[in-house]
């Protein structure tokens, strides 16, 4: 057995020696694609800096407060009457608050500046909403009240309408790069283009009726008073611009080189227009391209 092991060792040593000699005489070239080899980088992990743009779809939820929108109209109509000076019907609220939803579509574009894992940027975001409009709920108010030595049976009614068409926000973004993901928060200014309308009507009876020349007809015999006054005023503006601020958060996800998906939510508070106070909450999904 010992002799067999020795013989096998000698044969193995001889084979290695022959193989080494043959390799020195015939060298097989090495196939290579480039002079140096480096593993392919993760295409997502360092690609959030730079310019980008994209398109988006969304759903908007608006809350519109019409409760004070008739004040200016009523105060102007009754500005020289004892009613307004004493009772102030302009402070009565015949309109309410309403919440509406509507779809939207639009586009966005911006620039990201990369500071290691911190991403800071500025973005312009536009949405058009074809059906985000609200009509004020109406409650007709009728009150009997004394003023200036007379008794008035006064009725107040009003209307309000707001149709939000275009929404533009300029916002600063701050995010944290986490591989393929970029969660972010945003804060900015907003401009909304909308059609706005409001109107008010005040009418009533005065007892005793005012002395007129010729006398005011009093109607059927059972009617105890005349109808000495009836006022109506309205204002409307198409394409009015409402200004405000926005805050929100979202996440971008790189799914291909230069291509990312987006999901975000944004709240927008707007300044009043004729005492109509709207706020908008929007959820969006989008598809973007980063250069």
Name the features.
disordered N terminus, Porin, 3 helices, 291 residues, mainly beta
What can you see in these coordinates?
An eight-stranded antiparallel beta barrel has the order 1-2-3-5-6-7-8-9. It has one domain: Beta Barrel (Porin), CATH 2.40.160.20. With 291 residues, the chain is mainly beta. The relative contact order is 0.19. The protein contains three helices and nine strands.
| Assembly category | single chain
Distance between the termini: 74 Å
What is the helix fraction of residues, given as a range? 10-25%
Q: How many domains, as an integer?
A: 1
CATH A-level architecture: Beta Barrel
- Determine the number of helices (DSSP H or I, runs of at least 4 residues): 3
List the helices and strands in order: HEHHEEEEEEEE
- In this structure, how is the largest beta sheet organized? 8 strands, antiparallel, barrel
CATH topology: Porin
């Amino acid at each position: 057995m010992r002799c067999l092991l020795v013989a096998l060792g000698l044969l193995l040593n001889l084979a290695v020696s022959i193989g080494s000699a043959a390799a020195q005489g015939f060298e097989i070239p090495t196939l290579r694609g480039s002079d140096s080899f480096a593993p392919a980088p993760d295409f997502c992990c360092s690609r959030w800096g730079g310019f980008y743009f994209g398109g988006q779809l969304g759903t908007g939820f608006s809350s519109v407060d019409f409760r004070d929108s008739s004040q200016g109209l009523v105060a102007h109509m009754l500005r020289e009457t004892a009613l307004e000076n004493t009772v102030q019907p302009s402070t009565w609220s015949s309109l309410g608050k309403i919440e509406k939803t509507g779809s939207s579509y639009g586009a966005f574009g911006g620039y990201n500046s990369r500071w290691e894992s911190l991403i800071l940027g500025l973005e312009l975001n536009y949405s058009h909403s074809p059906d985000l409009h609200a009509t004020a709920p109406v409650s007709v108010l009728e009150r009997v009240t004394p003023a200036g030595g007379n008794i008035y049976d006064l009725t107040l009614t009003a209307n309000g309408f707001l149709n939000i068409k275009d929404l533009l926000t300029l916002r600063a973004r701050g995010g944290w790069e986490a591989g393929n993901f970029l969660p972010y928060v945003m804060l900015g200014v907003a401009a909304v283009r909308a059609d706005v309308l409001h109107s008010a009507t005040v009418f009533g009876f005065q007892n005793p009726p005012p002395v007129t020349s010729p006398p005011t007809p009093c109607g059927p015999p059972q009617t105890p008073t005349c109808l000495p006054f009836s006022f109506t005023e309205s204002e409307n503006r198409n394409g009015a611009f409402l200004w405000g601020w926005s805050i929100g958060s979202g996440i971008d996800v790189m799914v291909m080189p230069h291509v990312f998906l987006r999901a975000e939510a944004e709240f927008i508070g707007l300044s009043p227009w004729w005492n109509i106070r709207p706020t908008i909450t929007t959820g969006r999904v989008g598809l973007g391209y980063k250069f």
